[in-house]
Write a structure and sequence with these properties.
The structure is a single chain. The protein is built from two helices and no strands. The protein has about 300 residues and is largely without helices or strands. The chain starts with a helix and ends in a 280-residue tail after the last helix.
């Protein structure tokens, strides 16, 4: 339970709270289980505070200082954390549906197991963040920095990651069904066995990305840069790869049946044993691609 003195000081207002914190810089406030729903804590110094299981729904924490704070199992439904400092904060199993983290610093934060459906992370710093197994359906990450983030098994269906930086991020087995990834930066990102069915990757940068055994059926990868990417065993049935850069990419045993490759760059592309039945290959030069054992558009197997 929350320390009654700490809770009373916080409820007395910003001036009293800030003065007390400045006088006790090494003390970690205990606000666990506190009912702070709808409170105005704009700019509050809650660094290293214990907010386990606290009720913070609809609470204003704009520009608040919450670095190294513990918010495990806290309730933050539609809380406002705009421009807040949350680096190294813990949100394990927290409820954050519709929370607004736009512009916040969340580097190295831990959200494992939390519910973030519909949360707003636009322009936020999420470098090295732990989002393993989190619920992020419908969340927005426009221009957010997720470089080196851990998103293994995360649920990102219908999420908006337009122009987000996901360089070096781990999205192994993540679900990105119908996710918006237009112009996203995914250099050397890891997406093996990811579900990208009907995802929008228009003009995304996926150089040297690992998409082995990923499901990209009906995905829009037009004008996407996939040079040197690993797409071995990937499902690209009916995918739109018009104008895509696949130079040096590995598509060994990939299924490209009924995909559109019109105008794609396939120089030194490895299509060994790939399925190319009914593929649209207009304006494509296959002279330097490896087609050994590939099932060609007319049904014949390339020698």
């Amino acid at each position: 339970m929350a320390d009654p003195k700490h809770l009373m000081l916080l409820q007395q207002g910003a001036v009293t709270w800030l003065k007390w914190r400045s006088q006790h810089p090494d003390l970690h406030p205990d606000l666990s289980n506190a009912d702070l729903d709808g409170a105005n804590l704009r700019g509050a110094n809650l660094t290293a505070a214990n907010l386990r299981r606290a009720h913070l729904s609809w609470t204003k924490l704009i520009a608040a200082h919450l670095s190294f704070a513990t918010l495990n199992q806290a309730m933050l439904h539609k809380a406002e954390l705009i421009d807040a400092d949350l680096h190294h904060a813990e949100f394990i199993d927290a409820h954050l549906i519709g929370a607004d983290f736009s512009g916040a610093n969340l580097s190295f934060a831990n959200f494992i197991g939390s519910d973030l459906k519909g949360a707003n992370f636009n322009n936020a710093d999420l470098t090295h963040v732990n989002l393993i197994g989190t619920e992020l359906r419908g969340a927005t990450f426009r221009k957010a920095d997720l470089s080196n983030a851990d998103l293994r098994r995360a649920a990102l269906s219908h999420a908006n990651l337009t122009e987000a930086n996901l360089a070096g991020a781990d999205l192994t087995s993540a679900t990105l069904y119908e996710a918006e990834l237009a112009q996203a930066h995914l250099y050397r990102s890891r997406l093996p066995k990811a579900n990208l069915v009907q995802a929008h990757l228009i003009a995304a940068y996926l150089v040297e990305a690992d998409l082995s055994e990923a499901n990209l059926s009906r995905a829009d990868c037009s004008w996407t840069n996939l040079s040197k990417a690993n797409l071995a065993g990937a499902d690209l049935t009916r995918a739109n790869l018009r104008g895509a850069n696949l130079v040096g990419a590995n598509l060994t045993r990939a299924n490209l049946s009924r995909a559109c490759l019109r105008g794609a760059l396939l120089d030194r592309t490895n299509l060994r044993e790939a399925t190319l039945s009914d593929v649209e290959l207009g304006e494509v030069d296959l002279s330097r691609a490896n087609l050994q054992g590939a099932l060609m558009p007319r049904g014949d197997v390339h020698p």
